[in-house]
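Let's practice the habit of predicting before peeking. Look at the sequence and jot down your guess about where helices and strands might fall. Then scroll down.
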Amino acid sequence: APGGSINADGPLDTVLEVAGRVGAVPVVSLKGNLSPASAISTDQVVTGDGRALGAGDAVVLSVAVFDGGDGTNVTGNKTGTRLYRGLLDPNKIGESLANAVTGVTEGSRIVVRAPRTKEDQTKTTEITVIDILPTTATGTSQQPVEGTPTVTTNADGTVGLSVQGLPVPTHSTAAVLVQGDGPQVQASCIVTVRYSTVSWADGVQHATTYGTTTPPGTISMDNALAGIKEHLVDVQVGSRIVIAIPADQAAGEGAVAVVIDVLAVNDEEATGAAD
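Done guessing? Here is the structure:
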């Protein structure tokens, strides 16, 4: 925008605007030619209504990086955002990123401006937009379908999954327990999820990624169990779904029940590294 020269350290609303909903690829519009930033500054532009993040908590972050010279997205991949899943630990995600999101609630968006020196030694401003995504399903609760496995949520973020009294499935079925409103899962994408699996034979939980201090996992739809792939396609981000999978679709483990919270859809593997 033809706004003349602007101090990149000034109040955010005099420097730039950020468009797009939380979780989508943001668009940054500069209000003029920015002089290089002299210090790191952090602004919260959207306040979410989820839990506040503390040290050691599980996090899912959608991060986009922009050039302060012209506002172009320089994240470095085809999607324009990079997805981080892991724990809020400076040694895992970097001190700057950890400091920026500590104490901020899930569902929020923050903007970080920082000085940067390019390879040719010219000084500029690096603009980073960080969306703090929910780490559990956040949509609208649905009435449980009779005859499907029972899911309960505990105070520590873990879930209970019970198949007690239910007949062993002979074909896969699914029920949506929470209806999200985000992007839909596609047949060949990688999905950031919470999941928990229970065996029909003994009712024992065999795997789980639920819990406030447990990092979410991922499901590659190309390699997912047939029952999961069949019922997870087209499910929207923010949803919770429970699936009953018969033995012949459960990788030789016998019939299982799986509950899945869909947290994000990403075209490439979500990473916990401080790239």
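How did you do? The CA atoms of residues 143 and 177 lie 7 Å apart.
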